[in-house]
Amino acid sequence: FSFSWQTTFQDGGEEVEDGAVYNVTLKKVQIQQAANKGARWLGGEGDQLPPEHTVRQYETSKIRAIKAGTLEKLVENLLTAFGDADFSYISIFLATYRAFASPRAVLELLLDRFGNLETSSQGEVANLNSLESEMVLRAEIASVLRAWLDQCSEDFREPPDYICLLKLLDYLKNNMPNSDMESRVQNLLKQFQNQEVEAVDGFCSTSSSDLVDGEELEISNPEEFSSFQDHVVAEQLTYMDVMLFRRVVPYHCLGSIWSQRDKKENKNLAPTVRATITQFNAVTKCVISTILGTRELKIQQRAKIIEKWIHIAHECRILKNFSSLRAIISALQSNSIYRLKTTWMCVSKDILLMYEELSEIFSDHDNYLTSRELLMKEATSKFANLDSSEKENQKKSQKRLQLQKNKGVMQGTVPYLGTFLTDLIMLDTALQDYVEGGLINFEKRRREFEVIAQIKLLQSSCNSYCLIPDQKFIQWFRRQRHLTEEESYKLSREAEAAADTNILSPKSQKSMVKRISTLFLGTDVFTPPKEQPLKSSPVGGSSGESTDSASVSSCEFNHSETEDVCVTPVSSPEDPLKKGSISSDKGSGCSKGSVCDAGSGPDSGSMPCRDSGSALSSAPRALPVYNRQSEGSCIIRVSMDGLQDSIYKSILITNQDRIPDVTQRALLKHNLEPDAVEDYELVQVISEDKELAFPRDANVFYGMNSHVNFDFILRKRA
């Protein structure tokens, strides 16, 4: 017999059970078969069967995917998902359950309620009276536990008691004695117990506690920095980024978890993500310090350092390290570096073109479509694709790339983590945690897993890197004393003031200013970041300790929620600081002309909301976004008047929400008492000197001005 088949899918609606709602899809398979060996007997020529004797059969199967449910139902579904043909359910659940449950709660349900044969036979799992059913249940439990240990072993790292791991070990001894699973759990427990407590940020921290005895932080020596070859610096930055990115625990990136990091009790929340941010900031600050740290540098010498960093950024591109690439570009776009007009005039045209190409990777056009497509295209490719480079740069790029290929080692891809944090924060803001009946919205978790899966894919690709640490460079990198924002600005002004304005003719100066204006202020404007993260003011008004935040270009997060970072925009080359001034550490963080954005980097967890649909094209309907009212909903940004006026929080509103509802949500987002609604007024910022005030019971959606930014201020009533 010969066979051919065709598969079609049909929406089967929903099935509702007690405590769960399922999406049903009907899978219809058409099987066409022909008995070729009997063709002659049936009158066919050769081995061909007449069409009337072709047999068509149809087979229909039902695929059930849980849409929402109680925690008990979601855990039970771990055991039945394969039977329902929902093959990705276990991975999705394990990657996202920390948003709505603890490991202990899930483990207790899995083992005590569904894994205990005595109680299971009372109805939780059907047909367990026979030995065969008992064996099936054991196999299902083992399969779930194996996946849990494979994918999320960090869930069991609970020093010093390791309650969950000991509970699991006890269960295995009683129900699966002497099994491979039992041995594995014992080894994992020993591994956790023997490991010393280590700081997650490891070598990338620039604090003095990481230095060898007797060493002190120092401003970079230009000669020492110049002694490192460009590709060596890029390789070492990539080595550090790879080590940290591989350690990132994916669920730490979930919007519901990452957005809670500002609370006092959560100062140690998501340490693996904070570590990548610390490294990102260290690279950005290192770039700024090497350019501005030495007052005695001549203009040409300073320009050479800028050129060197552009070459290093290009080497990072060849290595597919988008994290350090973004950090270097962001530093070069920072206010204190951008304003060095005379220095930029001495940078060669070819290198400026290279810099422009690298900057365009992070263009905010169409929700950063260029960087997203490039990241996914190269996620699993062996080497970088540099075909789009300018001809002159392409020759150099291909030469360097060929050297990499000759080594015969595949490269991984290190992403800019802020892109994923951005998407996950948007999903968390736009989608509800619970649906009607108080059921956990698992459709939201499926959407989140689409982003988590990309992170895991890239983490897996990082295993392809084969980089050897250069202790000389790493020690140099550690020793760098980073300039504060005020120091950077002061040194930048001194460097520009000391420049000999006659080194170039007026004509060439005009041409160069025009070229730089085009470079920085083209169609895709790149807004530079602050050189140093702001101190986040805790509830109560005290300045508190500085929290991690990424000093990166605000273009990734221009229309979203500012959690920790205030961004100062680029002005024109003729007056670089006209529109925004540098704030002091004790200030609110922004002048009136500053643009305070949501998360100019991975630490913020804010979202590119201008066109979020492009990032989530698989969505059945468009998500609510910032600065656009769509289908009766939108996202606004609300800041607190006073000490926290530089910190925005994203709020989802609908056409049913009135002032008290939005005010209460904003207070909760800012970790303030929600009962104090009557003590605050909500106003929309129209311009620097205009505000739109709302009556106490106004409908915010219909009352707001939709032709300006959806930025609001919550202010205490007089």
Automatic annotation (TrEMBL):
<dbReference type="GO" id="GO:0007265">
    <property type="term" value="P:Ras protein signal transduction"/>
</dbReference>
<dbReference type="InterPro" id="IPR000159">
    <property type="entry name" value="RA_dom"/>
</dbReference>
<dbReference type="InterPro" id="IPR000651">
    <property type="entry name" value="Ras-like_Gua-exchang_fac_N"/>
</dbReference>
<dbReference type="GO" id="GO:0005886">
    <property type="term" value="C:plasma membrane"/>
</dbReference>
<feature type="compositionally biased region" description="Low complexity">
    <location>
        <begin position="579"/>
        <end position="594"/>
    </location>
</feature>
<dbReference type="InterPro" id="IPR001895">
    <property type="entry name" value="RASGEF_cat_dom"/>
</dbReference>
<feature type="domain" description="Ras-GEF">
    <location>
        <begin position="229"/>
        <end position="498"/>
    </location>
</feature>
<feature type="region of interest" description="Disordered">
    <location>
        <begin position="527"/>
        <end position="618"/>
    </location>
</feature>
<dbReference type="Pfam" id="PF00618">
    <property type="entry name" value="RasGEF_N"/>
</dbReference>
<dbReference type="InterPro" id="IPR008937">
    <property type="entry name" value="Ras-like_GEF"/>
</dbReference>
<dbReference type="Pfam" id="PF00617">
    <property type="entry name" value="RasGEF"/>
</dbReference>
<dbReference type="Pfam" id="PF00788">
    <property type="entry name" value="RA"/>
</dbReference>
<dbReference type="InterPro" id="IPR036964">
    <property type="entry name" value="RASGEF_cat_dom_sf"/>
</dbReference>
<dbReference type="InterPro" id="IPR029071">
    <property type="entry name" value="Ubiquitin-like_domsf"/>
</dbReference>
<protein>
    <submittedName>
        <fullName>RGL1 protein</fullName>
    </submittedName>
</protein>
<keyword id="KW-0344">Guanine-nucleotide releasing factor</keyword>
<feature type="compositionally biased region" description="Polar residues">
    <location>
        <begin position="544"/>
        <end position="557"/>
    </location>
</feature>
<dbReference type="GO" id="GO:0005085">
    <property type="term" value="F:guanyl-nucleotide exchange factor activity"/>
</dbReference>
<feature type="domain" description="N-terminal Ras-GEF">
    <location>
        <begin position="62"/>
        <end position="193"/>
    </location>
</feature>
<feature type="domain" description="Ras-associating">
    <location>
        <begin position="632"/>
        <end position="718"/>
    </location>
</feature>
<dbReference type="InterPro" id="IPR019804">
    <property type="entry name" value="Ras_G-nucl-exch_fac_CS"/>
</dbReference>
<dbReference type="InterPro" id="IPR023578">
    <property type="entry name" value="Ras_GEF_dom_sf"/>
</dbReference>
